[in-house]
Amino acid sequence: MRGLTGKAILVAGAGPGIGAETVMRLSEEGARLVVGDINIENARRAVADAKSAGGTAIALAYDQGDEDSIDHLVEQAVEELGVLDGVFASAAATSLANAEHDDTVVGLNTQVWEETFRVNLTGLAVLAGKSIPNMIEGGGGSIVFTSSLCAYMGEPVRAAYAASKVGIHALVRHIASRHGKEGIRVNAVVPGPVLTDAARANIGPEGLEQMLRDVRSTRLGEPRDIAAASAFLLSDDSSWVTGQALDVDGGLVLKP
Q1: Is CATH 3.40.50.720 what the domain over 8-248 is classified as, yes or no?
Q2: Is 161 a catalytic residue?
Q3: Which residues contact 20 (CB under 8 A, 6 or more apart)?
Q4: Using an 8 Å Cβ cutoff, are 124 and 89 in contact?
Q5: Cα–Cα distance, 91 to 188 (Å, whole number)
Q6: Where in the chain are the domains?
Q7: Which of 49, 69, 177, 187 has the fewest Cβ atoms within 10 Å of its own Cβ atom?
Q8: Whole-number Cα distances in Å, 204 to 12, 148, 207, 208, 209
Q9: Per-run averaged pLDDT (10 residues), the chain, 256 residues
């Protein structure tokens, strides 16, 4: 892949699965990374794996739901890397406590709604807003947000999560329109059914079989599939791609 060697990229969210796999892929492509996660051990494990593969990365703790923490993360990334060429953001409010109470708008749990939006959407807007000035100063760069197919699916549950992910798509279009002429590209990667460890544990064999029947592929997705798409969107190979939501879903959703 062209245009990732030596690039300075901030990874916001490095939990097991998509975040950690993206750290590894970017490292394999030669990027220099600052890796943040609310759980510093997640970030440290991802960085250790990246270094074992010959990559350059450091780990930092931060909270996607706290503006001051995001500000500090970006400042530290710039201090370590000198410039930001890219930002990959996969942090999201996916705790079991939230998921159990994110159901319907009837009897809406406003605390869960607000927490979900604070992390999933407001946090991304703050992260972008803190990063873009430095990226413009350095000549431009690429931002990749992680969305979800639930933005399209119209699920009968997870109202807050789905609405927050729809908002990411609007945020992508806004940034692309406002800052594209300043050299900023921004896209969302939209994962389909991905076999993370958590998915295997929570869904079970019957659920996984149903998911496989739903996709137009011979297999379900792996975190490496999302990492590959994200690396492409951060690389110079995608230099004429911006303002898009790229579905990586085995053909589950077909759009005209």
Answers
A1: yes
A2: yes
A3: 14, 42, 45, 46, 49, 223
A4: yes
A5: 13
A6: 8-248
A7: 177
A8: 29, 20, 5, 6, 9
A9: 94 95 97 97 96 94 97 98 97 66 85 93 98 98 96 86 96 98 98 86 86 95 98 98 97 90
| pTM: predicted TM-score of the whole model, two decimal places | 0.95
How far, in Å, CA of 80 to CA of 95, rounded?
30
Which residue is associated with the tokens 């494990």?
A: 45
Tokens of 226: 């999302």
Which positions ≥6 away from 170 have C-beta within 8 Å?
A: none
Determine the residue type at 56.
T
In eight-state DSSP terms, residue 121 is I
Question: Six-digit token pair at 22?
Answer: 């993206």
Task: Give the C-alpha separation, 129 to 143, whole Å.
Answer: 11
Q: Which two tokens stand for residue 20?
A: 């950690």
Q: Read off the tokens for 249.
A: 């879903």
Considering the candidates 62, 88, 117, 161, report the single residue annotated as catalytic: 161
Q: Phi-psi bin for 155: left (phi > 0), alpha (psi -120 to 50), beta?
A: beta
